[in-house]
């Protein structure tokens, strides 16, 4: 609003040019016009229109200010799932067209009906969220390096993104080793590198020899991923479900407490203590890094949907439609984990601003809480198979609701030019006030 009110005076010639920072916003508005009137398509048609579109595209991306300028701010995190107005539209990919889907996420292969859970789209309150466009994403990522840091759910997202991009190009595997926990792919046509860096708890952790219990060193970096941040342009960090396991918490090389250890001589600190400290330490690693100066996205907690029992006690997720936001609110443990994340994210965001580092919130929790129908459930294996997680209500089917995460991410990437310009103007304004 401050920018809107100042517009009439800010655009007049200024002797000292102190409002030149608004120029990127005008570039963003121009980019909005181009993006909404000349949409990208793939494959590109060999026609005059396609050639003109290519010219416009090169101009937009060369400017470095590909942005969407919304008159009314849009909160992607708040909304509802609505039936797709075109239920017969082709899916962005299937298990037959994408090789990146892990078996336990391959719900279509194991008999899940296509109708129903794939025929919904996310509509934020007060605005429309454009569907994911592989061409736009890959153009934005040209000559960039992007990494996803996290656990099985982060890998779930990576596989979804690879499948969404597969309509345009498949990457080649350039991983430094055969370790499936640390993968790297390259999109050769775009010189774009995407990595997955595995971590269960964000901080250094070890599973006990008896299994099922973890030692978390809450004040120590997990160097398996922090050592690989150098040179990255973007980082998506997340964590969640692994914190439900019993844990011993260590600080300064000694046990300070636990979660679900049930020992008389160890203080029960609870799950939220470890969750908070783990995110704080992970953000500290990013803030202190000398080699990473990219944009950090924190992807918020992904809730599970077991009903009528825990995961190992017959619980399942058999619903066939999304919840409505007016009928189901985030609460209990899910809400506490979400709020804990938010508090630590805001803390890191403030610290980052002092150092010129950008932290962005990829807030997917509410959208995913409303999708109890999107998990593999019994469709992650053949019925006769003996598997440890028989009914999977934690991970997400591919294709499935998790594909929306890339819609969110692309929208935020396109908004970055505008947001950065607004932050510069605000920073300059605050600096000027402080100097008076």
Walk me through the structure.
The chain is an alpha/beta fold. The protein has one domain. It is built from 10 helices and 13 strands. It has helices at about 1-10, 25-35, 50-65, 135-140, 150-165, 225, 270-290, 330-355, 365-370, 405-435; strands at about 80-85, 120-125, 145-150, 170-175, 180-185, 190-200, 205, 215-220, 235, 245-250, 255-260, 295-300, 360. The strands form 3 sheets. Strands 4-5-6-3-9-12-13 form a 7-stranded mixed sheet. A 4-stranded mixed sheet has the order 7-8-10-11, covered by helices on one side. β5 and β6 (about 190-200) form a beta hairpin. α2 (about 25-35) packs antiparallel against α10. The longest helix is centred in the C-terminal third of the chain and has 32 residues, at about 405-435. The chain is globular and about 65 Å long. The relative contact order is 0.15. The model is unreliable at about 1-70 (pLDDT under 50).
> How would a crystallographer describe the biggest sheet?
7 strands, mixed
Number of strands: 13
Instruction: Identify the overall geometry.
Output: globular
Helix content: 25-40%
* Uncertain stretches of 5 or more adjacent residues: 1-72
Instruction: Give the number of domains.
Output: 1
Radius of gyration over C-alpha positions, nearest whole angstrom:
23 Å
Would you summarize the structure shown here?
With 436 residues, this protein is of the alpha/beta class. It has helices spanning 2-10, 23-37, 48-63, 134-140, 152-165, 223-226, 271-288, 332-355, 365-369, 404-435, and strands at residues 79-83, 120-124, 145-150, 172-173, 182-187, 192-198, 203-207, 214-221, 234-237, 247-251, 254-259, 295-299, 358-362.
